[in-house]
Design goal:
This protein has 6 helices and 2 strands, in the order αααααββα. The protein has 115 residues and is mainly alpha-helical.
Length: 115
C-alpha cells in the first residue's frame, strides 16, 4: 500500500477506497484502480511465482514502460545477434493499453488476455 500512496498520494488512495466501497453494491469491478490511476494499477505485487527477490518485493512500473520494453528487446537482440528492429504496437481494450514488440501479433495477445 505504501507504493500506491507514494505513486498517487494519500488523498487519491483514500478517494479510490471510498469510491470502491460505494460501488461494491453495484458489482462494478476495478473502481479502486480506475480512481487511483494507471501508476497504481501497474504496481506488481510479490508472488511465489516470481524469482527472488521479487517473490517478496512489490515493484512499481517503469516511468516509460514502452521505452523500457524496447530497450530490453534491443539488448536481448544485440546480445544474441538477432535481426530486427524495435517497434511498439499499442491497442486499447477496456481502458487498458497492451504493448507488443517486434514479431508479436498484438491482436493475438489481446485475444489471450481479454477472454
Amino acid at each position: 500500500m505504501q507504493l500506491a500512496i507514494d505513486e498517487a498520494g494519500a488523498g487519491r488512495i483514500l478517494l479510490a477506497a471510498a469510491a470502491a466501497a460505494a460501488n461494491q453494491a453495484t458489482g462494478m469491478r476495478g473502481v479502486f484502480y480506475r480512481v487511483a490511476g494507471h501508476g497504481v494499477n501497474a504496481i506488481d505485487g510479490p508472488s511465489s511465482l516470481n524469482l527472488p527477490p521479487y517473490d517478496t518485493w512489490a515493484t512499481k512500473s517503469p516511468e516509460d514502460p514502452s521505452g523500457a520494453a524496447l530497450h530490453i528487446a534491443a539488448e536481448v537482440r544485440r546480445a544474441n545477434r538477432l535481426p530486427g528492429r524495435g517497434r511498439d504496437h499499442r491497442r486499447q481494450r477496456h481502458g487498458s493499453r497492451v504493448f507488443a514488440s517486434v514479431d508479436v501479433d498484438a491482436e493475438a495477445v489481446l485475444a489471450m488476455n481479454c477472454r
